[in-house]
Amino acid sequence: MQNNDKKIESIWADGCPENVKDEYKLNIGELLSFAVDYIVKVFCIPEGFKVEQVVTDLEHLPNIVMKKNDKLYAICVVPFLYPMYGVLTEKVRKNVVEVTKGYNATAYFCPIGFKSKDKARAEAGLALKGDLFDVMFKGFIELKDEDNQNLAVELDQFTYLENA
After folding, report:
1. Which of these, 112, 96, 92, lies nearest to 36 by C-alpha position?
2. pLDDT tens, residue by residue, 110-153
3. Distance CA 27, CA 102 (A)
4. Segment (H or E) for 35
5. β-pair type (141-142, 105-116)
6. How confident is the model at residue 1, as a pLDDT?
7. How does pLDDT run across 42-91, given as a tens digit for each residue?
8. Pairing mode, if any, of strands 105-116 and 71-81?
9. SS3 sequence, 120-131?
10. I need a labelling partner for 59 at 20 to 30 A (CA). Which of 6, 74, 109, 134 fits?
11. Which of 151, 5, 157, 161 is CA-nearest to residue 80?
């Protein structure tokens, strides 16, 4: 009997390689593409959202526009590498809230992190092409129309939009 279960492995040996060329490192644009793809496939579609638009251009927000029960949601995805954390600047946050209001959409912030399964690479914040990663997706934070908003919040302040 043949076992078709394939174990996925990193192409990299354990630890941090020395003198890695930049072409072997994932850049922020690639991380954004991975993050958006993850959210659409793991959250949006399984939760019954209709994905209206996807943008993986670093210069444009929101990255995902989705709809459910006649409500429009604008998701600003910010990828980061463990042990760091990604946030939006106040100026960008305010601009996104203002623009999405014009479309009668609710804006949300979605930080999504990647952590190498290799402990040394994870601690070094190193993301290599062909490596394996744990994805840190806590949910969404509604962007508010206020002077200052803390986007580095506690876990219980995230929502999965479960009541959409």
Report:
1. 112
2. 999 999 999 999 999 999 999 999 999 999 999 998 888 888 87
3. 32
4. helix 28-38
5. antiparallel
6. 45
7. 999 999 999 999 999 988 999 999 999 999 999 999 999 998 888 899 99
8. parallel
9. HHHHCCCCECCC
10. 134
11. 151
What are the tokens at 133?
Answer: 């990663």
Residues 6+ away with beta carbon under 8 Å from 143: 76, 88, 93, 96, 97, 100, 107, 108, 109, 149
Nearest CA to 79 out of 18, 13, 127, 144 is that of: 127
- What is the C-alpha to C-alpha distance for residues 127 and 25, in angstroms, rounded to an integer? 6
pLDDT of 164 reads 61
Q: What would the 3-class secondary structure string for 61-92 be? A: CCCEEEEECCEEEEEEEEEEECCCCCCCCHHH
Residue whose C-alpha is closest to residue 55's, from 88, 85, 77: 77
